[in-house]
């Protein structure tokens, strides 16, 4: 009897959704399917449980969706007719087994509806995040197009300083490895340095090409790499100073920049524990 009375009340108390529209914006009420029920209309048509929502679409894109209440629909929430349910009515019907158990008393949109119903906000957030990622990608201490090129130029410059006294020994290879790793941000093991030196086979004539195609900031890194090798033993020998000075001139590095590089190297050396 309760089920029959509920059904009759629904049939005789149906409302219809309303909406307004212009050339660009459509807004109004809509029904969104939630679940099937055990209720039937007077003609035996099953009643579906819906969300009754307010919506606004701009140029066919949903920009706002808000759930008003639960509602019952005789056409699977696809038409305009509905019967709105208060919280008390919903609770009573659910307790009687007429509505599915497990649904919350207060209707709430699911994640899909929230995202789709606030598409403008989602798109705005995506745009902001995308721009932030692009800015972060472009930001950095240097903008060299080829980190490998910087490493090679630095390696050749350091090798020119190291061979100024005749040859490159194991200790200098270790120093080159450490300096190259610190200045470029990429790890270079001593064995890898030896392999690169063997492959490049640098000669004094290579000094003419050091710095070509590098940015000003990368040329500064190359100079610092060479200076680090020159002062590795605590002093700069005349032959080493001649190579470093030649490098600075060829890479168009001025006296002020040269002194700044020396100051940074001196500060770094002071942080290294004395053996």
From TrEMBL:
Signal peptide: 1-23
Residue ranges occupied by any Co-chaperone DjlA N-terminal domain in the UniProt entry: 153-262
CDD domains: terB_like (cd07177)
Name this protein carries in UniProt: Dna-J like membrane chaperone protein
Superkingdom as given in the UniProt entry: Bacteria
Glycoprotein among keywords: no
Taxonomic lineage from the root: Bacteria, Pseudomonadati, Pseudomonadota, Alphaproteobacteria, Rhodobacterales
Pfam families, sorted: TerB
Protein keywords: Membrane, Signal, Transmembrane, Transmembrane helix
Source organism of this protein record: Octadecabacter ascidiaceicola
Transmembrane segments: 115-136
């Amino acid at each position: 009897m309760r089920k029959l009375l509920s059904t009759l009340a629904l049939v005789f108390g149906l409302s219809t959704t309303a909406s307004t529209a212009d050339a660009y914006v459509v807004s109004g009420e809509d029904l969104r399917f939630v679940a099937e029920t055990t209720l039937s209309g007077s003609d035996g048509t099953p009643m579906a449980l819906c969300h009754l929502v307010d919506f606004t679409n701009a140029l066919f894109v949903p920009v706002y969706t808000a759930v008003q209440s639960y509602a019952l629909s005789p056409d699977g929430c696809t038409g305009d007719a509905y019967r709105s349910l208060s919280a008390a009515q919903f609770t009573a019907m659910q307790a009687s087994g007429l509505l599915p158990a497990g649904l919350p008393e207060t209707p709430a949109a699911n994640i899909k509806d929230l995202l789709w119903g606030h598409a403008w906000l989602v798109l705005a957030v995506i745009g902001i995040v995308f721009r932030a990622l692009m800015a972060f990608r472009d930001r950095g201490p240097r903008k060299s197009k080829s980190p490998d090129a910087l490493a090679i130029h630095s390696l050749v410059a350091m090798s020119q300083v190291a061979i100024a006294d005749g040859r490159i020994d194991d200790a200098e290879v270790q120093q080159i490895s450490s300096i190259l790793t610190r200045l470029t941000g990429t790890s270079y093991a001593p064995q890898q340095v030896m392999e690169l030196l063997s492959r490049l086979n640098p000669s004094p004539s290579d000094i003419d090409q050091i710095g070509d195609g590098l940015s000003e900031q990368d040329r500064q890194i190359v100079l610092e790499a060479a200076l680090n090798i020159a002062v590795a033993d605590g002093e700069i020998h005349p032959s080493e100073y001649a190579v470093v000075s030649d490098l600075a001139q060829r890479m168009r590095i001025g006296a002020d920049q040269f002194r700044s590089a020396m100051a940074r190297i001196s500060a770094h050396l002071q942080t290294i524990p004395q053996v």
